[in-house]
Design a protein that fits this description.
heterodimer; A: two-stranded antiparallel sheet; globular; B: mainly beta; five-stranded mixed barrel; about 5% helix
């Protein structure tokens, strides 16, 4: 029996339909998306024996949510790497299932930053804190530093970055749940206020309440659940940091996580029919598609300006739900929606105007932390056939 | 035009040998950096373990306080939890002549003069705040 033949599968996914949720707790949103993803594949809470969550789960690691949901688990993992967390959780769930630790793994994400106006956490006990936070090193500014350097080294322009938002907005117009449903032009992005030069307000993702969940199951269980399951073909993850004072701002950890995932899946970038690319900011997308090998390093600006990301006809249709840039970035962490839209594409359940015809292999990529200092990159490759 | 983020809290400089001498020197208007005795790399930020060779023996070296801008941004949004008040400020990576790229504020009257490759020197003084942070100004 080959390794690939036993790959676990994503059986259920669910994205919370709301983007502003003023009257519910974070724990309840975790529960709503958990129940939604289990219902999506015909399973129940009592079938779950593995639970995965990030730092957005209220309480100590996974413990409070395991209790709140009434779970009885033989495996858990609360790896916290920001927006990339749920993608790593899917990869870790695959590993755990293949090791016999659990059979039905539940991954949940939830947060309420839009209604609670909660700020991003400051890690005051981090050893770098005194050397960075006191400078006003905000999240947008730490991505802006990457954008500025990329422009300097490769001639990337604000207009090219804006095209990434334009493509996302063209997709979002078909998603009735998207926070921003109106298509925007390159000029509108450039004319929006500068947040941290060279990034404008419309270069940034949305801030939304909500969440999402994913159910990963042993392949034998998946086959009993019908034909909407998709296989997890490959996974790769890494962290990238400032390298003892030699930071490189124009590459991301995708240059390492990508090849690991491609090798495990036995596919190449040109085999990818659809890609969910983490889009906290437009520059996040640009550097990631270069590092994953969808174009040469430094050529991302030209690639996106030629419509490469637009669905369904671009070379690399991306974020067909509208992405974090227009649709949803629940709890300031967009990773779970990256998995969910990739699964929709493989099932043929994306909105018709943006459904990639005969989508067989999809990629989902997450970026956690800050390109300007330290970040996590996780790549997951999914396939219609296991 | 405001050029440095106002109202920042005093940082929690530790009194031990790991970072204490760095903060004390900064208070005296000097920049010192850690050089690994094993591999001779000058690292950033100062820490117990060398990020290149994992050595744990280091020496403090006097730095020139000069470098060039590696990347920069003008932070115009509000909402950083440690920054009170309003006004844009410049955050930059400065590549020191000693090697490390350090995150810093660049203090200027006109943001337009901030460019990648621009030579800068370290400036001291509190700027209305008792917070010790790295600040540079164009030469």
């Amino acid at each position: 029996m080959t390794k690939v033949a036993r790959r676990p599968m994503v059986a259920g996914v669910y994205e919370h339909p709301e983007r502003r949720i003023p009257n519910k707790s974070v724990a309840r949103i975790h529960a709503e998306v958990a129940l939604g993803a289990l219902a999506d594949c015909g399973l129940g809470v009592k079938d779950v024996d593995g639970y995965f969550c990030g730092g957005d789960a209220p309480g100590m690691g996974p413990l409070s949510m395991i209790e709140y949901l009434g779970l009885d688990v033989s495996h858990f993992d609360s790896t916290e790497i920001g927006g990339a967390s749920p993608l790593s959780h899917v990869g870790h769930a695959v590993t755990a299932i293949m090791a016999g630790k659990c059979d039905v793994a539940l991954v949940t994400v939830a947060g309420l930053p839009r209604s609670q106006r909660s700020a991003a956490p400051v890690h005051r006990n981090a050893p770098e804190h005194d050397f960075e936070s006191t400078l006003g090193a905000s999240t947008p500014s730490l991505y802006a530093l990457a954008a500025q350097r990329h422009m300097h080294e490769y001639g990337t322009t604000s207009e090219q970055l804006a095209e990434i938002k334009v493509a996302a907005s063209l997709h979002a117009q078909h998603n009735p749940h998207a926070l921003l449903k109106k298509p925007v032009s390159v000029e509108e992005v450039i004319d929006s206020p500068l947040v941290a030069d060279p990034l404008h307000r419309l270069d940034c993702c949305v801030v939304t309440d909500g969440g999402g969940a994913v159910v990963v199951v042993r392949q034998e269980i998946a086959h009993a659940l019908g034909d909407r399951c998709v296989a997890v073909l490959g996974h790769g993850e890494t962290s990238k940091h400032s390298n003892n004072g030699r930071i490189d701002l124009t590459h991301t950890g995708a240059m390492f996580s990508g090849p690991r995932a491609f090798e495990e899946a036995g596919v190449r970038p040109q085999n990818i029919d659809y890609a969910s690319i983490y889009d906290s900011f437009t520059i996040t997308v640009l550097e990631t598609i270069e590092d994953l090998g969808f174009c040469d390093k430094g050529d991302g600006g030209r690639f996106v300006a030629e419509g490469g990301l637009r669905a369904p006809d671009g070379i690399l249709p991306f974020n067909t739900d509208g992405g974090g840039l227009c649709n949803n970035h629940p709890g300031n962490r967009g990773g779970v929606t990256k998995i969910i839209e990739a699964v929709r594409q493989l099932r043929g359940e994306a909105y018709p105007a943006v459904q990639v015809p005969n989508c067989q292999v999809a990629l989902a990529h997450g970026t956690g932390g800050w390109l300007g200092t330290r970040s996590a990159s996780t790549t997951v490759i999914l396939g219609r056939e296991g | 035009m405001t050029t440095a983020p106002p109202g920042r809290p005093a940082n929690a400089a530790s009194g031990d040998g790991e970072t204490g001498p760095f903060w004390e020197a900064l208070s005296d208007g000097r920049l010192i950096l850690k050089r690994c005795v094993g591999c001779r790399n000058v690292g950033w930020y100062p820490r117990f373990v060398c990020g290149v060779c994992a050595g744990t023996t280091w020496e403090w070296v006097e730095a020139s306080g000069r470098g060039t801008i590696y990347s920069h941004t003008i932070v115009r949004h509000q909402g950083h939890p440690l920054i009170e008040g309003s006004g844009a400020y410049c955050l930059a990576y400065v590549e020191l002549v000693e090697g490390p790229r350090v995150l810093a504020n660049v203090v200027v009257d006109d943001f337009d003069v901030v460019r990648i490759g621009r030579a800068v020197r370290m400036v001291f003084g509190t700027g209305g705040s008792d917070v010790r942070v790295l600040r540079f100004a164009p030469i």
